[in-house]
Design brief:
It is built from 18 helices and 10 strands. The protein is of the alpha/beta class and about 400 residues long. The chain has a domain of about 260 residues: Rossmann fold (3-Layer(aba) Sandwich). The termini are far apart. InterPro entries: AB_hydrolase_1, AB_hydrolase_fold, Epox_hydrolase-like.
Amino acid sequence: MTAPRLDLLRPRSPAAPPRLSCELHRLVALLARSLCSHTRASASMAQFPPSFHPVEHSIPHSVNPDSLPASSLFALASSPPQESGSTHPPLPVLVFVHGYPQNHTLWQPVLDHLDAHTDLVKRFRILVPDLPGYGKSRKALSPDGSHEAYSKREIGRDILSLVDAVWPPSSSSSSDSHAKVVLIGHDRGARVAYRLAKDSSERIVGLSVQDIVPTTEQFKRMSYDNKRHAASLGMYHWIFLATPPPLGEMLLLSSPTIGPWYARYSISAWTGPAFRSRTEVLSTPYGDTPSPLYAPELMDSWCEQYAEPDVVRGALEDYRAGASIDLVHDEAEDDEGRKVRCPLLALWCAGLERAGAPGEDVRKTWEARGPEGDRTRAKRVDKDGVGHFLPIEASDEVANEVAEWVNRWF
């Protein structure tokens, strides 16, 4: 790959006429607005099954609702037809949670398969949110610099608040009046789901995590002993995106095209060899950039959202929380506290194993954190050439695993 044209990020010569500078700023602003508008259009072009419809709710800020503005949370929701006179308790809500650098459209291929080949979409209520800070969801940052607002604990609370806004609990004050939830998460979304399953075991009745190890284990991979920091170089973004402000903001917002370029570059780097072999090379201001041949409307939806400063800041806060307050929450738990009580489905690709620290075993890691016996299913997805983005690169396999697991336990 041609090296990125970093010279294009340097300031123009001071000799440049002021009139030209003003004109460039005007054109950059117009381009940014165009990209942001196209991002929203791209997201709407990703065709989910017809039962899904957009919902947007204003949720009190989870950290300090009295002094911070309410969060605006976006999702797609689907509800089966109501059975009049049914005396059976309602089935749990299935919540599909995306990771970085995507948004809710990550799950479109999986849900298409579930709709076409299973009855899950017809039987279950389903919610597919944009995590706060991603896509169309917005949440104010913690003003004290603690990153608490974007901790996995607080984002998990936001998800439950959104579930309750879409399907309000009955007038009963009993906790049983709130919908039970099954969480299916990938990447950062899997970290939110894992934390929420531990924090709210009375409501979370099922957990599926995809292509992660717990955050504390992930940081242990950054070691000279782990193939002379090979894993550290592969997950450099865990440090880069977590650097204190304003470094990340200055770099990723230095132009309206650098954020989308970096997202495309990252997706290409984390894609498995099967899709990387079907890569087109795009000519960009930063050099020739490989782009996996995923559906164009999905790639556009994921990448072009990073022309918006709010999305860049949200993603940075996500990683800053992951390197600080999330670790505080994790380290406060003993071995029992790390376990989830509900049925657990863990899926991962071979690349997650290759990056592991010496002696690490992904399967044993999740078996130790789930319930005993067959209530924990930990499986590597062995489809040839699959990389990190399982819901895209192995959408049929993921959908089939999720459907079998959901049908067995719920």
